[in-house]
UniProtKB/TrEMBL annotation:
Residues 153-278 form the Beta-Casp domain. Keywords: Coiled coil, mRNA processing, Nucleus, RNA-binding. The keyword Secreted does not apply. It is found in: Nucleus. It comes from Hanusia phi. This is Cleavage and polyadenylation specificity factor subunit 2.
């Protein structure tokens, strides 16, 4: 379900700023109807060409519902584990990978093995995050944190909400989650208690406290909603890679020109993306270029000649669509007439044969 909301987020972001026609929200719903939902440890026997193979999802620890896969056939066992988290998060247990019996084959990755930013452990990374946010607060600057829509953003929201609760310095600073699906994402996370850590579940059972009851987080689904909140702001904006049409790129273009503001890249971005280029430069000790060329998409009302040209194009499209419908109707009518004529001819021939068979023969 969380991945479905991620797809919604991407499509709505694109459709708000460009003519995105590759697929729609309805197409996402149709695709999701074909998914089979499995719980952790639940076995599923495949059929057809994969008959004899059993798969089981196991807790990966990196996001709600994130899974490793155990694939079994007869006595052979494969574990597919390419994205997982060993650490205990505030809302998730760490991966079960270390507790599994040794498989015949382990397929894994080392995506962040050499990343200097992960050194020092989880507590040290969180402390650095808090220190950066507090330093921006002292300068009365804004903080932008580009995030994925439904993964690590949830842990960051919990960490920052705790900071707002504990630090009087953050009073008067807006903490916001900016995403077309921000409300649905947090509401869905609140309802997914069975997928959360044992500690979170126990606390919920005992006191009905939900870890995603984030008192200080404003959920914003548009830039207009965000603009109505006071400054300075700390905003977790969807668009981890700073891709075109994302909220994160909008805020980056607006805030990066002011040295008081801060941009925090808390996750490794997709190779080739703008955020990854920044990370690679900084990782090598190089400064970012002073001037950046950004491609921005934005919907604006058409005026004057452009509006007239657009209306003429729409008129021609409508005429062409009507012509095609008329041609299809004519073809259908011709086919129907041909079919009726063939049926009449066949009936006439049958009638003639019947008459001949009933006619008296000469003696």
């Amino acid at each position: 379900v969380m991945l479905k909301l991620t797809m919604y987020d991407i499509v709505e972001s694109r459709m708000a700023k460009e003519d995105f026609k590759q697929f729609t929200l309805a197409d996402i719903d149709m695709a999701w109807d074909n998914f089979v939902v499995l719980r952790y440890q639940q076995s599923c026997s495949l059929s057809g060409k994969a008959e004899g193979i059993t798969i089981s999802p196991l807790n990966a620890g990196h996001m709600i519902g994130g899974a490793l896969w155990k694939i079994t056939k007869e006595s052979e066992e494969i574990v597919y584990a390419v994205d997982y988290n060993h650490a205990q998060d505030r809302h998730l247990d760490g991966t079960v990978l270390v507790d599994l019996p040794r498989p015949n084959i382990l397929i894994t990755d080392a995506y962040t093995a050499l990343d200097k930013n992960v050194l020092g452990g989880k507590k040290a990374r969180e402390q650095r995050l808090v220190e950066y946010v507090l330093s921006a607060r002292r300068q009365n600057g804004n903080v932008l944190i580009p995030v994925d829509s439904t993964g690590r953003v949830l842990e960051l929201l919990i960490v920052l909400d705790e900071l707002w609760q504990q630090s009087p310095h953050m009073q008067g600073v807006t903490l916001a989650f900016l995403s077309p699906e921000s409300r649905s994402i947090i509401d869905m996370a609140m309802s997914q208690t069975e997928w959360l850590s044992k500690h979170v579940n126990q606390r919920f059972i005992q006191s009905r406290h939900n870890v995603f009851h984030l008192e200080h987080v404003h959920r914003c689904c548009s830039r207009e909603e965000l603009a109505r909140l006071p400054y300075p702001q700390v905003v977790l904006a969807s668009g981890l890679d700073l891709e075109t049409s994302s909220f994160s790129l909008d805020l980056f273009a607006e805030w990066a020109t002011d040295s008081k503001n801060l941009v925090l890249l808390t996750q490794k971005a997709r190779p080739g993306s703008r955020a990854r280029q920044f990370q690679d430069l900084l990782g090598k000790g190089h400064p970012l270029p002073p001037d950046l060329m950004l491609q921005m998409h934005r919907r604006v009302p058409l005026e004057g000649r452009e509006l007239r040209e657009h209306e003429e194009q729409e008129r021609l499209k409508a005429l062409e669509a009507r012509r095609q419908l008329e041609e299809e109707a004519e073809e259908a009518e011709e086919e129907e007439n041909d079919t009726l004529a063939a049926m009449r001819k066949l009936l006439s021939a049958r009638s003639a044969r019947r008459k001949r068979s009933m006619a008296p023969t000469a003696q």
